[in-house]
Amino acid sequence: MGDVPEFDRAPGSRFAYVTLVTNQDYVLGASALLRSLRHSGTSADLVVLYTPGVDEQDLDTLKGFGPRLGRCDRLPTSEAFNERHERGRLHKAAPFTKGGKPVFHTPLDNFVKLRLWQLTDYDRVVFIDADALVLKNLDKLFGYPEFCAAPNVYESLKDFHRMNSGVFTAAPDEGTFAAMLDRLDQPDAFWRRTDQTFLESFFPDWHGLPVFYNMLQYVWFNLPELWDWSQVHVLHYQYEKPWETGHDKVDRLRPLIDLWQAFATGDGIPEDMSALPGPLDGAALKAS
Questions:
Q1: pTM of the model
Q2: Alpha helices in 77-153 (DSSP H)
């Protein structure tokens, strides 16, 4: 079935926020995410799963936030499955046309998210991608059912039909994990958007969270009327990452990049997120 993650210490709570890092870039992202979670005042465990693509010394920058660190391998998928989901073949079959994705890791790393269901030390977990910030306390999600996720909204109303796997709730259970592995690696199975497509299929009646619980950064310029800082709980930097430089959307996303930098450094974190200028305010429009 695949080895369970190996942790550096015992759990301190029955609830946890979990993220996944697969290389140094995502360790950088996780440092800002963990600071934002601590800033939110949560009492839940913070858990960082990391794959062999991360050296343990790279995680030293995260230890000041007190996370539980869990080493884990990729899922034990077949060679044929791995070939179908190799980066070049996957992106040729399902290219990204709306924005740029940096070459951080193999798409196979995305499926490691399914190991959340192996974390049976916890009653409930909330997964958050490492390229995200928590701007308002999320602890009430631990009382939500499995499986909750927000729609993949960033361009039009049609996006509400799809989910985004950057934030979701899960109830760890080895039986569920076994069923997932069985469904995942069927002959000729091809998951167009890797874990996201799979989870949408495995939980066809997924419970929809408000978009504010996984606000995708392209809403800033594609659907500015939807943006409301007073309601944004999670800001998710899909496509181009806030630590990247030189991409063609830097100027348009400058206010969001500056906010991420504040959490990454711990310097200049706004006291009142609801007071931040929105995309329709004159100052923000001028900056974009």
A1: 0.92
A2: 79-84, 87-93
